[in-house]
Amino acid sequence: MKNLKEKAYNENNSFVIALDGPSASGKGAIGRMLASEFNLKYVQSGIVYRSLAYLCIVNNIDVADVKKIIEFSKTDHLVELAKEMDLNQESIGNYASKISTIPEVRTNINKYLILMITTYPRIIMEGRDIGTVIAKDADLKIFITADVNKRAERRYKQLQEEGKKCKLEDILQLLKERDLRDSMRIVDPLMVASDAFVIDTSNMDQQEVIAEIKNYIELS
């Protein structure tokens, strides 16, 4: 049986990483860096939910109109339909967080995500329930977390750099609300897989996080 190091560094081997964590914990940047490091297909489950949220918003579907949202979640190629749109907006993220609690929506999107896992032998998928639901048999499960105040500061800085108007206190409140929804939803709540490598990035930069993950791989 191949060990983790061999799977990671030999590109002839299949290698699946499940990367989970709360909103604005730094998963995106870490995920892209790991994808580059190990030549992996990088997929964000959050983009699928944000794409669905965007399509619902532009079609004036109220967040309470569950029936219509479920129908839209069956749409093929959700990500492609919103490909050229700026999905990194708090309004879209907040809408996506709300509709992600709908069981039928999660079921439909999970089918798409599981198909991605089976399609690409070398892949890193990032989200909130990848290690516990989508890729239970992933070769490596990582859970990235950070203090909610640190996460709010990071998101605020990111949005400021993108020229978007926002208030730090509003972002902090939204993150707290998302954390609560993610952890309390009935279907596929945010939780740490029992076999996940947990990293608190509150006082770490990206290079330090990558170094810690590589060290974990090489010692496993």
The level 1 CATH classification is Alpha Beta
Order of helices and strands: HEHEHHHHHEHEHHEH
CATH topology: Rossmann fold
Arithmetic mean of pLDDT? 93
Second CATH tier, the architecture: 3-Layer(aba) Sandwich
**How many beta strands in the DSSP annotation?**
5
Relevant CATH superfamily: P-loop containing nucleotide triphosphate hydrolases
| Structural class designation | alpha/beta
Instruction: Report strand %.
Output: 5-15%
Radius of gyration: 17 Å
Q: Topology of this structure?
A:
Blueprint: H1 4-9, E1 15-20, H2 27-38, E2 41-44, H3 45-58, H4 66-72, H5 78-81, H6 90-99, H7 103-119, E3 122-127, H8 130-134, E4 140-145, H9 148-161, H10 168-184, E5 197-200, H11 206-219
Parallel strand pairs: 1-3, 1-4, 2-3, 4-5
Helix pairs in contact: 3-6, 6-10, 9-10
Q: What does this molecule look like?
A:
The protein has helices at residues 4-9, 27-38, 45-58, 66-72, 78-81, 90-99, 103-119, 130-134, 148-161, 168-184, 206-219; strands spanning 15-20, 41-44, 122-127, 140-145, 197-200. The protein is of the alpha/beta class and 220 residues long. Strands 2-3-1-4-5 form a 5-stranded parallel beta sheet. Helix 3 crosses helix 6 (90-99) and helix 6 runs parallel beside helix 10 (168-184). The two termini are 13 Å apart.
